[in-house]
Amino acid sequence: MKNEKKGSVIALGTFDGVHAGHRALLREAKELSAKLGAEPMIYTFRNHPLSPFGREPKLLMTQLERLYALEASGLFVAADVFDLEFAATPPADFVKMLCRRFDMRAAVVGFNYTFGSKGRGNTELLRKMGADLGFTVSVMEPVSHEGAPVSSSRIRRCLEEGNIPDANAMLGKRYALSGTVEMNRRIGHTIGFPTANLENYGNKVLPLSGVYATRAVLSGRAYDAVTNVGNNPTVEGRRTTVETHLLDFDADIYGMPLKVEFIERLRGEVKFSGRDALAAQIAADVRNARNILKDQEK
To answer: How many Å apart are CA 248 and CA 229, to the nearest integer?
Structure first.
């Protein structure tokens, strides 16, 4: 059957975290495309726009996680590499490129969207060019949480402050780190609480140092867990690690992929008098985590 749809409705943005505000923008692109008889799509970049300048922030998703999440929306995703040459593109030329490559009939953007060299393009310029070039512009009002706009930077701040419930509420899912279980010093084994040391989780935000009630997803199964983020001062740790104790679990999982979902911060990281005191506190952490997690859906 011949495809009668013409042109594209393009959702524009970086989409780190693919949070609640982003998903509202993607829904708008789908709805608008249905009205216009056009194809909905996403235009973004394969890397963070600050990365060519050496200023890439810690992210809510790895670039692959972000692209997979965008593709899961059902929209076609076009993602270019953002390099220094692209960064120098004048705003008007960027818009003309979208029209030329994708026959843009409508653009859907956030209220604070900027584009082009040094971010000099804004929604006002986009609307003006739309009037000249024949496309419409839908500027989304911010999605709010607790009276303030949801944004990737706000979610990062919540994580860095240990405020997991607000971060998760804005994300619309649990913040997670995914990586592989690698050998560390095996201190946990010596005190009765073996931990999985998570590595290779990418350039992602680490929650504030401390102990968290978490869920660990291993081979498709979720386990209640307690996770420590920090440098383990009681045993003179020298680097920040992410160590997860899976409750009611006993198996060798070195080298296996593991996903750790953060649910609530239990306490800050403390230097105890010794390993016995540390073990006693971890036992209390486990009890506390069980109480928090028992009412959570897996």
So the answer is: 21
Strand, coil or helix: 201: coil
Q: For 115-156, what is each residue's pLDDT tens digit?
A: 999 999 999 999 999 999 999 999 999 999 999 999 999 999
Residue with tokens 């911060």: 265
Find, among 115, 206, 163, 151, the residue nearest to 17 by Cα: 151
Q: Are 223 and 216 in contact (CB under 8 A)?
A: yes
* Token pair listed for 149: 């706009």
- Among the listed ranges 64-73, 111-120, 188-197, which one has the minimum average pLDDT value? 188-197
CA distance 278 to 230: 14
- 233-269 pLDDT, tens digit each: 555 556 789 999 999 998 889 999 999 999 999 999 8
The amino acid at residue 282 is I
Give the angle subtended at the CA of 118 by the CAs of 32 and 107, to the nearest 5°: 5
Angle at 51 between CA 260 and CA 112, to 5 degrees: 85
